[in-house]
Amino acid sequence: MDQVGFLWICATLFILSLSKFSSRLRCIFNYCFYMVFCNIAALFPLLLFPFRKFDSRNALSAAFLGRFVARLMGLTYQIEGLENVNLSQGGIILINHQNVLDLLGPASVVVKKQLIYYAIFGVASWTWGSLFIDRSNQERAIISLQKQSEAITKKKIKLIFFPEGTRNEGEHLLMFKKGPFKLALQCRCSVQPIVVSRNYFFRHRSGGERNISGRGIIRIMPEITTTNIESDSLVTFIERVHGEMDDVYQELNNRKISL
Predict the structure, then answer these.
(1) pTM for the complete prediction?
(2) What is the enzyme's class at the highest EC level (predicted)?
(3) What are the boundaries of each domain within the chain?
(4) DSSP state string for 198-235
(5) Cα separations (Å) of 47 from 38, 58, 123, 155, 196?
(6) What is the rounded CA–CA span in Å between residue 143 and residue 218?
(7) Which residues does 213 contact at the CB level (< 8 Å), separation at least 6?
(8) Per-residue pLDDT for 125 more than 50?
(9) Cβ atoms of 192 and 94 closer than 8 Å
(10) What is residue 62's predicted lDDT score, i.e. its pLDDT?
(11) Which band of pLDDT confidence, cut at 50, 70 and 90, is reported for residue 247?
């Protein structure tokens, strides 16, 4: 073994030893390790691209490897509501967004345009059909979303949105953006909320919040039809969905604390 390799091993063992005593260092180490591995796993969809262009199935390999490494790191999720999953039709899926752990599943995700420049992962997400929108140009973003209505209704595609518009680690969900709801009303497709409990695995809190357990809860809520909802009731509809998701968010967080 050469000297560089030996020093690398020693440095890794030293960091691992320190992480046993420092929760902050352990969070940083977990995040760095997981992000490096995610970019390595993202190489697999690139290899599949010539055979299945812009196909969400290309993400299956990366998602499988990501979940495997997550389990090795102690990340586990209890999933509720699988009976609410309907693969016979397209629709809009709404998920609260906290960190990269929310992207462990294969799907057509709607994300900000800047993500495509995020190392290998950005290019890989392009190969599996993610929709990149330019938030700085609202008109162009709306046109991009409207083009997806045919894919939802005819190709039975499910689009994943993070309706808060950004990552949120707070105790309550942020107010939702109107984009995904306008699209749902336009193509008259269902909206399905999915709520993920708070996860401290990649972050450290001062004071009493030092729980960095990777155990979490995911609840797949029943689909909400938009057939009878008119455009002038859009704001009321958004407030209704936000309220229902926020109530579940509080419930899951309280249950997790008591576990």
Answers:
(1) 0.74
(2) transferase
(3) 3-254
(4) ---TT---STT------EEEEEEPPPB--TT--GGGHH
(5) 15, 9, 12, 24, 31
(6) 32
(7) 74, 200, 201
(8) yes
(9) yes
(10) 72
(11) very high
